[in-house]
Task: inverse folding
């Protein structure tokens, strides 16, 4: 379990994270959403120990990530948004760097590369951006870590790779893992990310499972107008309307509509979910 | 798997399994994929699949053998049929009748022509 308490971080004068508190549990694939500049990447780099919290604390199974204990480092992986092209074949990279992770599995690296139809014998400097990204995703999954942080992993992936990514993330990760994926491409990751975390400027607006969300909010897709809808967006063939779930009926959570609803009704949403 | 836009995913997974039971693709005491296997197959979070399996277990459509997996119940087909009949009478039929009324269709004439 990861416990974040009153976390704060600023770049010089510019405060990015302030009073951030949340817990992350095993066996979950968290989706970290938020507008540009709210500190998603900063939060990920703090979680993996690349940065030191300036206020508050992060506790990962009893350890502080910034202490960079080998036992924790070898059981976590951070996939950054931009990945370097090394002057070697993908397979060589995996063999050389996989050594740092105690559960690294070269066979799994090849398996995921095959899923993505990526050639492990290709030099990384000769790869397209998407191919390079897929190489790193394969590597990240092959590391078999308990903690996996991915920053915008589907950026640059082609159409077939997106569904392959969704399948690979379910198939090739450990059951006890805590996975945190930051993204703007919510459609790429729909059905995969659950719980949903919505980060705002110096605040956590939401950290809830889809089940909790659908208990409290109702997503209506009909063409009939709802009077007290919190959010309404026209789509071909009707509307997406979000309202408080009073009947207890179950509906499909539309993450984009959820995001917009939460942003328009910050205090209301925080109130409902913190009850 | 293609999901439609307005029913929650866990219910759509339940529906898909029930369809397979009705069509005979899944027979009594047949094992269904584990939560993670199924999740990976259709690209859905395992926790969502777990929710579907829990619902189907509570309804007696599938049963869990601890450490082995989930299996189709002996009388799954009857259970599913009964639930669908009930849903048809309570939800689908009233909707059809309402639509027919709106379109000015007489039920007796429609029956004669079919």
Result:
């Amino acid at each position: 379990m990861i416990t974040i308490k009153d976390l704060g971080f600023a770049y010089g004068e510019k405060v990015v994270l302030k009073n951030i508190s949340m817990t992350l549990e095993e066996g979950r694939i968290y989706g970290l959403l938020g507008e540009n500049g709210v500190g998603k990447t900063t939060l990920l780099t703090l979680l993996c120990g690349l940065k030191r919290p300036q206020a508050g604390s992060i506790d990962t199974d009893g350890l502080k990530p910034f202490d960079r204990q080998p036992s924790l480092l070898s059981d976590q992986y951070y996939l950054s948004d931009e990945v370097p092209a090394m002057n070697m074949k993908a397979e060589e990279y995996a063999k050389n760097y996989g050594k740092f992770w105690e559960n690294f599995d070269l066979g799994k690296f090849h398996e995921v590369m095959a899923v993505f139809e990526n050639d492990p014998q290709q030099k990384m400097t000769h790869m397209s951006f998407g191919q390079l990204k897929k190489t790193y995703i394969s590597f990240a999954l092959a590391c078999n870590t308990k903690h996996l942080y991915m920053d915008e992993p589907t950026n640059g992936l082609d159409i077939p790779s997106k569904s392959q990514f969704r399948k690979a993330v379910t198939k090739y990760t450990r059951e006890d893992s805590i996975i945190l994926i930051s993204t703007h491409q919510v459609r790429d990751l729909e059905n995969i990310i659950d719980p949903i975390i919505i980060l705002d400027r110096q605040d956590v607006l939401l950290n809830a499972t889809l089940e909790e969300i659908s208990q409290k909010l109702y997503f209506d897709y009909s063409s009939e107008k709802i009077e007290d809808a919190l959010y309404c967006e026209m789509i071909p063939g009707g509307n997406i309307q979000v309202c408080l779930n009073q009947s207890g009926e179950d509906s499909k959570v539309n993450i984009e509509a959820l995001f917009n609803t939460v942003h328009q009704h910050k205090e209301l949403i925080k109130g409902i979910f913190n009850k | 798997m293609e999901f439609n836009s307005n029913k929650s995913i866990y219910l759509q997974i339940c529906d898909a399994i029930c369809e397979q039971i009705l069509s005979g693709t899944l027979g009594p005491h047949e094992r269904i994929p584990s939560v993670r296997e199924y999740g990976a197959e259709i690209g859905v979070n395992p926790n969502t699949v777990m929710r579907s399996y829990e619902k189907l277990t509570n309804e007696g459509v599938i049963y869990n053998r601890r450490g082995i997996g989930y299996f189709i119940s002996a009388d799954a087909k009857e259970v599913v049929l009964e639930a669908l009949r009930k849903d048809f009478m309570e939800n689908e039929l009233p909707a059809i009748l309402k639509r027919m009324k709106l379109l000015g269709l007489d039920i007796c004439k429609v029956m004669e022509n079919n």
